[in-house]
């Protein structure tokens, strides 16, 4: 059975419907990319999983239905969400941001160990450990957001456009960091991206959304050959 | 010279009172991001509760004060849950309107319940004075200053050494990210209001013996406390206390040495302070400067 199973998901912002029945399955240990143009519903899909928008349909995590749960309850189940725009605690220091990520954990030794891990994965953060998050560059804040998520020791990590607004080299290094993290810890990933070639450096499968519906879905090897994907998202 | 020293001591004593309410303002700002204009009125309400609890003097005043603090937590948490969370108080204008409405509501409730007569309220401290060189200082003033200092230390420890403090600051900074790391935002906002109301209650029982207890007792103190909070930097407990003392001392000195102010226009001091700080150094003495990076 899949770790995350989204079936016939509809989502609404007030009266307007954004998702019109989408299905996504993510195997434990897998990495699925959600691709699509602006406004296709990628971010809304992640926000639905985290309980931040009104939805209908089913979202099951590890066999448990998430519908009606508050976001903090969903986080408690082991789902970490790196939101679009990074969601830094701007007035908190880098260290405090990371410790806020570990809010639900009671194992002080494990938290200390994961703090070490984060700082070794992101040496830039170690150098700025006492700085307020607002002082960091965009790339550093993205790393901080990923670090914050890692600190919660999640089973499922939702990443919302980690490359957004970053210089290509910086985006590259963020993705390299994610790859390194997956070598260190067991992590199932859902990555929202507009840049498909970056997403495919990690994702083993993808779902392409168009106007709130699934236009295409399949494993990477299959999708990379599809003409529409090449034209629209791979830039060739 | 003797007069000067006495004025500084008196100003310091008043300043401690301003600081006690300013600390409540800073706490609520720190943990919920808003300024609560009802903070003083809530402190008046809990002081009436303390007066009730003292049962005409049968119960010792520190115990009655403790009852006020507990009541403060409940009142603060309840008002947040029952009223404040129903509005989008992250918008500064909404927050101002809501808290001013609460201010009038709570003052009105006090007036209805206990009337607009002025009542005596017993001091928490012995009624004695100590000589300091050519001047004297009351035990009550020293006690108030000591309480304020202890509260600042506790607040610093709370904010910077505890998980609760970290989560209160996180929620004020970014509620959405706080939810995503598993914080119960609604409950933490209630705790923030509750704790601030405890400090407001403390301010109430410290102020009442000096000015007598009546529903608008805190109105004037609130102006001074706001000035202290702004001068100190809205999110700095230490800043609020130092600024409270500065304002108290400047007020006392200006009342005597600045002809145009005299004893009638002392209220101008905090207003001028607010004006100057906002113009020259909006982040206050010890506040963090708002940084925007684009």
Structure write-up:
The complex is a heterodimer of chains A (236) and B (294). Chain A folds into two domains: 160 residues, P-loop containing nucleotide triphosphate hydrolases (Rossmann fold, 3-Layer(aba) Sandwich), CATH 3.40.50; 66 residues, no CATH class. Chain A has 236 residues and is α/β, with parallel strands linked by helices. Chain A has a six-stranded mixed β-sheet with strand order 6-7-8-3-9-10, with helices on both faces. In chain A, strands 2-1-4-5 form a four-stranded antiparallel β-sheet, covered by helices on one side. Chain A has ten helices and ten strands. The model of chain A has no long low-confidence stretch (mean pLDDT 92). By secondary structure, chain B is an all-alpha fold. Chain B has one domain. Helices cover 70% and strands 3% of the residues of chain B. Chain B has a two-stranded antiparallel ribbon. The longest helix of chain B is centred in the first third of the chain and has 31 residues. Chain B is globular, with a radius of gyration of 19 Å. The mean pLDDT of chain B is 92. Classes of the chains: A alpha/beta (236), B mainly alpha (294). Chains A and B meet through helix 2 and helix 3 of A and helix 6 and helix 7 of B.
The SSE string of chain A, one letter per element, is: EEEHEEHEHHHHEHEHEEHH
Quickly give the structural class of chain B: mainly alpha
In percent, how helical is the residue content of chain B? over 70%
Q: What fraction strand of chain A?
A: 25-35%
Average pLDDT, all residues of chain B:
92
Provide the helix percentage of chain A.
25-40%
Low-confidence stretches of chain B: none
Largest sheet of chain A: 6 strands, mixed
């Amino acid at each position: 059975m899949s770790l995350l199973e989204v079936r016939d998901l509809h989502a609404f912002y007030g009266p307007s419907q954004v998702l019109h029945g989408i299905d996504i399955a993510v195997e434990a240990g897998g990495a699925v990319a959600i691709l699509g143009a602006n406004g296709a519903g990628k971010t809304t899909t992640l926000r639905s999983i985290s309980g931040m928008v009104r939805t209908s349909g089913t979202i099951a995590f590890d066999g448990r239905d998430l519908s009606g749960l508050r976001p903090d309850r969903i986080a408690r189940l082991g789902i970490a969400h790196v939101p679009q725009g990074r969601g830094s605690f701007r007035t908190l220091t880098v260290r405090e941001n990371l410790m806020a990520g570990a809010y639900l954990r009671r194992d002080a030794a494990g938290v200390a160990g994961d703090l070490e891990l984060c700082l070794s994965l992101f040496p830039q953060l170690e150098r700025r450990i006492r700085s307020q998050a607002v002082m960091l560059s965009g790339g550093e804040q993205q790393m901080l957001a990923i670090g914050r998520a890692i600190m919660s020791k999640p089973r499922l990590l939702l990443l919302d456009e980690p490359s957004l607004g970053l210089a290509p080299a910086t985006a590259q290094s963020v993705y390299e960091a994610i790859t390194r993290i997956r070598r260190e810890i067991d992590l199932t990933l859902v990555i929202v991206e507009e840049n498909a070639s970056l997403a495919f450096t990690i994702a083993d499968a993808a779902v392409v959304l168009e106007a709130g519906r699934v236009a295409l879905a399949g494993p990477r090897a299959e999708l990379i050959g599809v003409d529409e994907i090449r034209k629209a998202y791979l830039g060739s | 010279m003797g007069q000067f020293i006495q004025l500084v001591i008196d100003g310091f004593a008043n300043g401690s009172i301003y600081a006690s309410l300013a600390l409540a303002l800073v706490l609520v700002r720190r943990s919920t991001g808003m300024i609560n204009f009802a903070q003083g009125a809530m402190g008046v309400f809990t002081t009436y509760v303390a007066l009730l609890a003292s049962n005409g003097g049968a119960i010792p005043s520190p115990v009655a004060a403790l009852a006020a603090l507990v009541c403060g937590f409940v009142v603060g948490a309840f008002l947040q849950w029952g009223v404040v969370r129903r509005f989008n108080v992250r918008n500064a204008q909404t927050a101002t309107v809501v808290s001013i409405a609460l201010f009038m509501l709570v003052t009105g409730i006090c007036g209805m319940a206990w009337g607009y007569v002025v009542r005596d309220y017993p001091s928490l401290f012995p009624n004695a004075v100590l000589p300091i060189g050519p001047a004297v200082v009351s035990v009550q003033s020293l006690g108030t200053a000591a309480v304020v200092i202890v509260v600042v230390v506790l607040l610093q420890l709370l904010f910077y050494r505890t998980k609760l403090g970290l989560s209160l600051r996180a929620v004020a900074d970014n509620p959405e990210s706080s939810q995503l790391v598993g914080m119960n935002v609604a409950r933490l906002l209630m705790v923030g209001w509750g704790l601030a109301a405890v400090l407001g209650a403390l301010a109430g029982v410290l102020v009442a013996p000096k000015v007598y207890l009546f529903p608008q007792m805190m109105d004037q103190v609130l102006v001074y406390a706001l000035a202290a909070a702004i001068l100190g930097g809205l999110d700095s407990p230490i800043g609020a206390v130092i600024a409270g003392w500065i304002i108290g001392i400047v007020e006392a000195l200006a009342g005597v040495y600045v002809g145009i102010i005299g004893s009638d226009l002392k209220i101008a001091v905090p207003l001028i302070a607010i004006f100057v700080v906002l113009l020259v150094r909006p982040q206050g003495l010890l506040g963090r400067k708002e940084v925007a990076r684009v």
